[in-house]
Design a protein that fits this description.
Largest sheet of chain A: 7 strands, mixed
CATH class of the largest domain in chain A: Alpha Beta
Structural class of chain B: alpha/beta
Number of helices of chain A: 16
Helix content of chain A: 25-40%
Number of strands of chain A: 27
Distance between the termini of chain A: 41 Å
Largest sheet of chain B: 5 strands, parallel
Strand content of chain B: 15-25%
Oligomer: heterodimer
Number of domains of chain B: 2
């Protein structure tokens, strides 16, 4: 049933096409508008706000964006295809793409929603960092958010000018910062200079994060209009005489101490992912990435994918993003949704991964090791044909050998191993390379095409992921007469199935022990990580293996 | 749905991604590439992994190239330029100039004999990826100067020395401009003496060297350098040149490359001259801390590079703590050249009637949607509209594809 012949056999299934969006900030609203515009019914869940410091996702951006946001809100409210749920807590999520069941509470009421896909659009949080500077807020020492709010008042700006006030900013000494934070600083600095003659901005800054749209130009415009930047790698000295802060540092170029007594000292803020992300990651069973964003730094996930099919992470849920980047994410999500949900009927491979229900003892090893969250169970394990990526990690981990991947069954692979080894001419060292089709297989094919020197007795066995390489395959290869065996995986952090490389490495470490016990030289087995564009490295590694065992 | 046709101009990472995404919806895509190879600059970049992936995205380019090559809905037009575009009734008609194709892709089996036996270097060009087909391209000049050689060298009879350019007119419903960027020409900063010193190289040169040698070596003697300097912001953030933009990719490529070559040659002494280090990846604080442990960072951009004996290079180094300048010698200097607008943007803007911004990149019609141009039915993606990384260009290409589908009224 699972041989290559029926690998392409498809079946039609019905799926739910409703989409749940978690997060009612700019990105969530924009996503609701675009996705509903495509014809899908949208449930827009605005979370219960656990981030008490959270403010509008617009962060003091100019008034015309506020208008855009208002218009967007109006459009969403007036759209019959969008169901808005306020004050939501997500309680549980089960099921697979095309058929998720989400239990949530909205305004204290328990609800159950069936959706085909989930889009996470949690907002970013801006938190004061005065504790790191060791300063207390006062009339003269304010947070960036408060200063931005003040700037929106004409009275405040007038006072700045008329009193010829100086405003000093401290940026990049309590954290690395980001282009989005930089944009907020640059906008504030410009607003001070544009308020009229009189007010002066001083910016004490570590690295200026200008890697965003038009930021370098904004930086120059601010300076042209009178803002003064002090670029320092160390925090300047800040003393407080009575209530007034004094900022000073030694300038090595002009060899003197520079002291400023600002009327207002503005402290940078940390822009961090929503704290709710950690909880959502657990409920949705998606990987939590660096800094608490909902996406690992794995190129296979970019731009909007999580490790689970049908669950997308967009905007500030996945990285610190500005509005145009959030918009980019939204449109990418729409494309992905159209491909996943289509018109509600979906063709899926019938036998992508097959569970032998006779053998399965429902130990749920597969459920735990599946990096794509594709496995659930009735009284036996069930693999969702929509969610399954056919990496084969489950098949190799199953203690009952109850799972087979179509086209890569154990019998087929053992046959391939046998044939590959017997195909090598006598005299040439027989080297078998298990190659992940995403990386090493491509590199190996390129090495051959580019005429790099390769061992004559090298044979490649294609696997969907290094995580599919069973220890049994490695041992079989040696039993069948291989002189050397290489297991070639993607670099850690680049595995399409996230943990395939890790599983492969564990198994090879175990295999080393077994080899030692049977007296086979460990040097004959090698675990290698490679990328698809590393043809020269592939050739070098293979030739070195030949030399070592020859 | 009636059959829809799209023209994507530019076969780099943005163009390939947009083409692939559209093809997934059954749209017929003409992917136009002026050079003999798909992939743009990005296909030439090497993997920056140390013992782990550093997320440079170079392998994504390889993957995208494989996908466009295999897609039945994408027609690849290599060595092709767009000569004229007219529009009528929401249809665009594009006149293409194609070829000449000296190698017949049907007959060529990529054996490489023409490349290996070529009488002069540069007459036969070699693609970077196994997914480039043909893997080789012969220049018109090469054919002209070595007609007899090329007439007889190919064992498959795939080379026709008398091939001529042809024209083809295609009709499309919308188009995407993904014509990419131009790397900054370091000769515009003559005090770096790029043309004079073999061991002053650009980031792109570094990629080529790593590709050819499997490691970073000095062009002058092929030896692994002991002391290497990276100079950031070459051509970017340069008021004097009127370049008021950060190229966004140079801090990432310099530091990732530095990590990758340091893994290969742990003894190497690496100094980074910079103005401001930009964020790299999602885990930047941790990555930057690791870099600070491994490399010396000097916040000052050297102005001059002088030659020394042994092809070594002397830089004026500013000591920020002391406020003094001194001279220091390096074995190799890598100039982190930035992303400049494609010099053809002006012509393309005229051809299509779309606007450029003050910097010479394609302008966006909406500050929040960077894929809309000043013309209905014409979209832009990738570095054609400003500096961007590989993942950034891919995301924008996906967005452009989405906008095209909306424009065409392609539903689910």
């Amino acid at each position: 049933m699972t041989t290559s012949e029926n690998a392409h056999e498809m079946e039609k299934i019905e799926i739910v096409t409703d989409v749940l969006i978690i997060g009612g900030g700019y990105t969530g609203l924009k996503a609701a508008d675009s996705i509903a515009g495509t014809g899908y019914h949208v449930i827009l869940a605005d979370q219960k706000n656990s981030d008490h410091q959270a403010r509008s996702s617009l962060f003091g951006l100019k008034a015309d964006f506020q208008n855009q946001l208002d218009e967007l809100k109006k459009a969403v409210n007036g759209n019959n295809n969008i169901e808005f749920l306020p004050d939501v807590n997500i309680n549980s999520a089960t099921g697979v793409p095309g058929d998720f069941t989400i239990r949530l509470t909205s305004n204290g009421k328990d609800l159950e929603k069936k959706v085909g896909a989930v889009v996470v659009a949690t907002d970013i949080v801006s938190t004061p960092l005065n504790h790191i500077y060791g300063l207390d807020f006062s009339d003269k020492i304010v947070s960036l958010s408060d200063f931005e709010e003040n700037l929106s008042s004409a009275d405040f700006k007038e006072k700045l000018c008329n009193n010829k006030q100086t405003v000093a900013f401290l940026v990049g000494f309590a954290q690395n910062g980001s282009p989005l934070l930089m944009k907020r600083i640059l906008d504030s600095v410009l607003a001070i200079s544009e308020a009229g003659n009189g007010a002066t901005a001083y910016v004490y800054i570590n690295d200026i994060k200008v890697a965003g749209n038009d930021l370098e130009r904004l930086y120059k415009t601010g300076r042209d209009k009178g803002a003064i930047y002090f670029k320092l790698t160390q925090l300047p000295e800040i003393s407080q005489q009575s209530d007034a802060p004094v900022v000073s540092f030694h300038d090595p170029v002009v060899r003197s101490d520079i002291e400023v007594e600002p009327d207002i000292l503005v402290l940078e803020e940390a822009m961090t992912p929503s704290q709710i992300n950690t909880k959502l990651a657990g409920i949705l069973r998606i990987d939590l990435g660096p800094m608490g964003f909902l996406q690992t730094d794995n190129v296979h996930r970019f731009p909007v994918n999580s490790n689970r099919e049908g669950i997308y992470v967009i905007g500030s849920a996945r990285d610190i993003q500005d509005l145009s980047e959030a918009w980019t994410d939204v449109e990418n999500t729409v494309i992905q949704l159209k491909q996943l949900l289509g018109d509600g009927t979906k063709e899926v491979p019938k036998f992508r991964a097959v569970v032998d229900r006779e053998k399965c003892v429902t130990c749920l090893t597969c459920y735990r090791c599946c990096p794509h969250g594709a496995i659930y169970w009735d009284d036996k394990a069930v693999i969702s044909p929509v969610a399954c990526q056919a990496c084969g990690i489950c098949a190799s981990e199953c203690p009952q050998e109850a799972i087979q991947i179509t086209g890569y069954t154990d019998d087929e692979l053992i046959d391939q191993i046998r044939n590959a080894i017997s195909d090598v001419k006598n005299g040439d060292p027989k080297i078998l390379a298990f190659c992940c089709e995403n990386s090493a297989l491509e590199a190996g094919k390129a090495a051959a095409l580019f005429h790099y020197e390769l061992p004559k007795g090298l044979r490649m066995i294609r696997v969907p992921c290094a995580g599919k390489v069973d220890i049994h395959y490695v041992l079989s290869a040696f039993i069948e007469g291989a002189d050397g065996v290489m297991v070639m995986a993607c670099h850690p952090g680049n595995c399409k199935s996230e943990t395939g490389t890790t599983f492969a490495r564990w198994r090879i470490n175990n295999a080393y022990q077994m080899l030692e016990e049977t007296g086979i030289n460990k040097e004959r087995l090698e675990f290698v990580t490679l990328a698809s564009n590393m043809a020269p490295d592939f050739a070098k590694i293979a030739v070195e293996m030949e030399k070592r065992i020859g | 749905m009636k059959e829809k046709h799209i023209m994507v101009m530019g076969g780099g990472i943005a163009g390939m991604t947009a083409a692939r995404d559209l093809a997934g919806f059954g749209v017929n895509v003409h992917l136009i590439e002026k050079s003999g190879f798909m992939g743009g600059y990005a296909i030439g970049y090497t993997c920056k992994a140390t013992t782990e992936c550093l997320q440079c995205g170079a392998c994504s380019v390889e993957k995208a190239l494989k996908e466009v090559t295999e897609s039945p809905n994408i027609k690849l037009h290599l060595s092709t330029t767009v000569e004229a575009v007219t529009s009528e009734n929401q249809k665009f008609s594009a006149k293409l100039k194609k070829g000449p194709f000296f190698i017949d892709p049907e007959k060529c089996n990529n054996c490489g004999v023409c490349y290996e036996k070529s009488p002069v270097k540069g007459a036969v060009l070699h693609g970077y990826s196994k997914n480039n087909h043909p893997l080789y391209a012969i220049t018109a000049e090469g054919i002209q100067n070595h007609r007899d050689f090329f007439a007889s060298v190919c064992p498959e009879g795939a080379i026709s020395i008398d091939a001529e350019a042809a024209t083809e007119t295609i009709s499309v419903d919308a188009l995407i401009v993904a014509t990419g960027f131009e790397p900054f020409d370091p000769n515009q900063k003559p005090t770096y003496r790029y043309a004079e010193h073999a061991n002053v190289i650009t980031g792109l040169d570094m990629e080529r060297i790593k590709r050819d040698h499997g490691a970073l070596v000095r062009p002058s003697d092929g030896q692994v350098p002991e002391k290497v300097a990276f100079i950031q912001c070459v051509g970017s953030r340069d008021e004097r040149l009127g370049h008021l933009w950060c190229s966004r990719v140079c801090c990432p490529y310099a530091l990732r490359s530095a990590q990758s070559i340091k893994t290969q040659s742990p003894e190497m002494d690496i100094t980074i001259f910079y103005m401001d280090i930009q964020n790299i990846g999602k885990d930047f604080p941790a990555f930057y801390e690791a870099c600070k442990n491994d490399f010396r960072f000097i916040r000052s951009i050297p102005v001059d590079i002088f030659g020394e004996e042994n092809d070594r290079l002397k830089l004026r180094v500013f000591d920020e703590a002391e406020g003094t300048a001194g001279l220091e010698t390096f074995d190799l200097v890598v100039l982190s050249i930035g992303i400049m607008p494609n010099p053809e943007n002006q012509a393309i803007s005229k051809l299509l009637g779309i606007k450029l911004d003050d910097d010479g990149f394609f302008a966006h019609n909406d500050s929040l949607n960077q894929t809309l141009t000043s013309q209905n039915g014409i979209f832009v993606a990738g570095t054609a509209s400003g500096p961007n990384s590989i993942p950034g260009s891919m995301a924008q290409a996906g967005q452009a594809a989405g906008e095209v589908l909306k424009y065409l009224g392609v539903a689910q």
